Amino acid sequence: xxxxxxxxxxxxxxxxxxxxxxxxxxxxxxxxxxxxxxxxxxxxxxxxxxxxxxxxxxxxxxxxxxxxxxxxxxxxxxxxxxxxxxxxxxxxxxxxxxxxxxxxxxxxxxxxxxxxxxxxxxxxxxxxxxxxxxxxxxxxxxxxxxxxxxxxxxxxxxxxxxxxxxxxxxxxxxxxxxxxxxxxxxxxxxxxxxxxxxxxxxxxxxxxxxxxxxxxxxxxxxxxxxxxxxxxxxxxxxxxxxxxxxxxxxxxxxxxxxxxxxxxxxxxxxxxxxxxxxxxxxxxxxxxxxxxxxxxxxxxxxxxxxxxxxxxxxxxxxxxxxxxxx
Amino acid sequence: xxxxxxxxxxxxxxxxxxxxxxxxxxxxxxxxxxxxxxxxxxxxxxxxxxxxxxxxxxxxxxxxxxxxxxxxxxxxxxxxxxxxxxxxxxxxxxxxxxxxxxxxxxxxxxxxxxxxxxxxxxxxxxxxxxxxxxxxxxxxxxxxxxxxxxxxxxxxxxxxxxxxxxxxxxxxxxxxxxxxxxxxxxxxxxxxxxxxxxxxxxxxxxxxxxxxxxxxxxxxxxxxxxxxxxxxxxxxxxxxxxxxxxxxxxxxxxxxxxxxxxxxxxxxxxxxxxxxxxxxxxxxxxxxxxxxxxxxxxxxxxxxxxxxxxxxxxxxxxxxxxxxxx
DNA sequence: TATTATGGTGAAAGCGATTTCAATGACAGG
DNA sequence: CCTGTCATTGAAATCGCTTTCACCATAATA
Lengths: 326, 326
Known about the structure:
Two copies of one chain form a homodimer.
Chain A: H1 4-11, H2 15-23, H3 29-42, H4 48-55, E1 60-65, H5 71-86, E2 90-95, H6 100-112, E3 117-121, H7 127-134, E4 140-143, E5 151-155, H8 157-171, E6 175-180, H9 186-202, E7 212-214, H10 219-232, E8 236-241, H11 244-258, E9 267-268, H12 274-280, E10 285-288, H13 290-305, E11 316-319, E12 321-324
Parallel strand pairs in A: 1-2, 1-3, 3-4, 4-5, 5-11, 6-7, 6-8, 8-9
Antiparallel strand pairs in A: 10-12
Helix pairs in contact in A: 1-2, 1-3, 5-13, 6-7, 8-9, 10-11
The structure holds a DNA duplex.
């Protein structure tokens, strides 16, 4: 492996000069030219490891996600990757498989390991999380949850759910049921359920708390909860779900129980999943700019890292949403 | 930041001893104990950057994918991540957005940058790719394509497509059309089409080459191609697609043209997408163990890196498939 | 008793960059 | 002619760890 010293010797300069050439320090045009040639000739590339050791910066961003094979997350990740690539960083991806402890583990790992910053696609935020975020040695941005005192990019799940509930209340005749997710997930669990309930109530069609079930983000859990609902309360006429994935499961359940094609008029979700949209013609759901949230969060993070001129540092950013098919 | 020297001083030993303690070299029980305490006391963690510089190994694996927000790829990635995490490595993810040149770019970047090995989720393999793979300084494993002389984990697309075509030929009465993808993608483009054609032919129902269209892996492209097919050849009664995603698009097109619910009996795909399965009750498709391919490829790669005892080095591995709903 | 092994040990030499620092020569102003 | 700037320069000091190497006990062997 050709190193800086080799280039320096070939160009007849000191390695300090080469380093300066590479990093834009004082260098005469004449030597710059010789160095340039020497580099091309040798095909030299500088060791990012040595550089990292010396400068303390690795140009690596840790990205922690709860699950990589989910449409929303992979969209977010795509957005993060876009910005990272454009700005000369690389992505260190950590998948926690929905285990909150693995999240903490990685948060820890990344601090002592070589990342310049962290993007956390958050689900549950426990006190331990808050503490870990607080004491994080590198800048960190959350996506998906609003945490006081932390930099975050999120959507207003309460508001969106309220609007959805309000809109649906008028359109549905009969009982509405709800399949949510754990309330430890503040945004997708608590906020969506509360917002939805409030929306229904405001429209004069309050949610019967006996018709609330808990799923686990998976299609199968949505299916199971819906089957159970339909057998316990056969008069339920609409099932709202906290995610499109669970809505797909509920839809199948309804199709099975009530006949093919029935489901698509009787479920709603969150996330505007492309498959679901295409296959059903569009169930009521909320469209979130997932890719955008990845982009915004990453820009925010890199701006503070690169010490951008503008005062655009870490802050909190609420993105808009859009009701679909209501 | 507390460094090894600090720990050594606190424990009253040399830093060499600490390093040996950490890496399992000669160390007396007594000193090991003192070092252990000193580490706990100071909360020392070793700098992976210094370690990387010294040892030349970063415990980082570069993963190049064509598109992160796709079910198959994110499943593969999940599998890769599982193994990596379990074996103490981390994943450096690069998303090429289906641009073959970006693939080469990353292949290059990763070599001069800090990865110990590379997993390439491959689509198109040009000669330039072959050259880049050949001359790669770190071990590399391909997923999804079979390339002579390179380590790869792949599925037998020709065989699977043949079986699917053969099975469908008997079940479909009327004309069958095919929406494929670029043949530059040997596996998903060339092999699937060829296999499917051969399967139909073997069953005595050859594919009319006028009924072949090209999509681009997206749902919309499947939709567009199907609409065009249906208007040009209204007597087409079945549309086979090279991916489930495109099949979803075709399904929607048929629903629009022929009436809701018609599509699901008149399309087939590849990949066994969970959404599609749930929402349609299951179209004919091929199930591939995507997660498994990620797992296998990564194990293969890490085995050579860790110089595992067994002779399980880089080789080529063909995984099985399973026809669904035929 | 003389000699090997053998388990332990620390000093010191890197790994390949960046960055400080003192030195240099050129040049303008006084 | 002297002095003060100013752009350039290379030697050398790090960055924090791993790893050789020489060396020392002590136990085992001849």
